[in-house]
Every structure is written in structure tokens, then in C-alpha cells.
Design brief:
The complex is a heterodimer. By secondary structure, chain A is an all-beta fold. Chain A contains no helices and 11 strands. Chain B has no helices and 11 strands. The chains are: A mainly beta, B mainly beta.
């Protein structure tokens, strides 16, 4: 079992470029989440999907879109990257929204 | 605005010491409080607390929640160098949003 996987591991973008971060899980969990982690600020929730077919905004959704493609996959899209989106992005999953979350290894994104 | 504050921000101890990490919160609709350990990469789950006064324990780690005073503590006894990490506290609020604190960086010296 791979658990939670994220691709890519590292990415460098120029301002204005777009990209999609991919997350997949084989834990048969219903809920999935996208966070960003910046130095000194802890993790901040961008979007979450309580179950297949639903998505909701978290604390910092501006500049991002998400797609819950199926039960296993949840992608995060940056349409027009900005330097302020330089961060480490973590995907997480949980059995349901009231359960503990399991995190993927993260994607380090740099926008120049 | 929902807020989770952890203290201290960093802590250096020697192997064998006991440490207490603090997490206080002010949120609109509390559902649960979670503790995670983050070493170099992804956070790993330690505890989830929903009720006041009930201690959760796993080996040398334990945690308790006080919903009246709005805080939780994480205790680590007989610390080891492998306990060195950032410890994160998170609060789940009623709309299933999560608020994380900035973390406490624990360094355990041999």
C-alpha cells in the first residue's frame, strides 16, 4: 500500500504559469484535503473534499481550484502562479471528516 | 477569527527530560483537537481529543484536553533524540475546516 502519494515532488514555475498538483490515495478514505505550509505559519487548509463529488473552501482558497476526480484522486490547480504561492503543499486524507488525517510526502513549489 | 496558539515555539532539552507542550485555541465551533509530529516531511498523527479530562496515552506520550479553559497539553516523558521534531496542534471546527498552530520545535540533545 502506497498510502497517500503526491506528484511532482518538486516544481519551479515562472509567474503566470499554470500547473496541477496531483494526489492519490489507496486507503479507501472518503475525505481529502489540500494544505500549504509556510515557514513559521503552520499548515493552512486550501480546499477539502468531504466525499466524492463535493468540494469546499478552506482558510486560504484564493488563487487555487480543485477537482475530486474520483474517490482516490484529488487535484489542486494553480491557474496563474504568483510568487506568494511559493510553499510546500501537502495532500491529506481521512476516513471521514471527523477522523484523523494522513498526509502525503508534500510538493515543494517555487514560483519565480 | 479562529486561532490556535502553541507554546513554546522552540524547546531544547536533554535525553531523559520530561517536556510539556501547550496548545490554546479560540474557535467558533469546536469539534476536536489533534496532535501531529512532523520530522523532515509529512506530519504523522499522534492523538485526537474530543472530550475534556480524558487522557490519551501512547507509550511515553500523553495528551489531555480542557474544553473549559480552551487548551491542550502534550507530555513526553523520558525524551529520546528520536523525539526531536516539530509538534503541531490542530483544531477541527464545525464546518470541518482545520486550524493549525505554528508548531513547537523540540530538540532533544544526547
Amino acid at each position: 500500500n502506497a498510502g497517500v502519494t503526491q506528484t511532482p515532488k518538486f516544481q519551479v514555475l515562472k509567474t503566470g504559469q499554470s500547473m496541477t498538483l496531483q494526489c492519490a490515495q489507496d486507503m479507501n478514505h472518503n475525505s481529502m484535503y489540500w494544505y500549504r505550509q509556510d515557514p513559521g505559519m503552520g499548515l493552512r487548509l486550501i480546499y477539502y473534499s468531504a466525499s466524492e463529488g463535493t468540494t469546499d473552501k478552506g482558510e486560504v482558497p484564493n488563487g487555487y481550484n480543485v477537482s475530486r476526480l474520483n474517490k482516490r484522486e484529488f487535484s489542486l490547480r494553480l491557474e496563474s502562479a504568483a510568487p506568494s504561492q511559493t510553499s510546500v503543499y501537502f495532500c491529506a486524507t481521512s476516513r471521514h471528516t471527523d477522523y484523523e488525517q494522513y498526509f502525503g510526502p508534500g510538493t515543494r513549489l517555487t514560483v519565480t | 477569527e479562529d486561532k490556535v496558539v502553541q507554546s513554546p515555539l522552540s524547546l531544547v532539552v536533554h535525553e531523559g527530560d520530561t517536556v510539556t507542550l501547550n496548545c490554546s485555541y479560540e474557535v467558533t465551533n469546536f469539534r476536536s483537537l489533534l496532535w501531529y509530529k512532523q520530522e523532515k516531511k509529512a506530519p504523522t498523527f499522534l492523538f485526537m481529543l474530543t472530550s475534556s479530562g480524558i487522557e490519551k496515552k501512547s507509550g511515553r506520550l500523553s495528551s489531555i484536553l480542557d474544553k473549559k479553559e480552551l487548551f491542550s497539553i502534550l507530555n513526553i516523558t523520558a525524551t529520546q533524540t528520536g523525539d526531536s521534531a516539530v509538534y503541531l496542534c490542530a483544531v477541527r471546527v464545525d464546518n470541518n475546516d482545520m486550524r493549525f498552530g505554528a508548531g513547537t520545535r523540540l530538540t532533544v540533545k544526547p
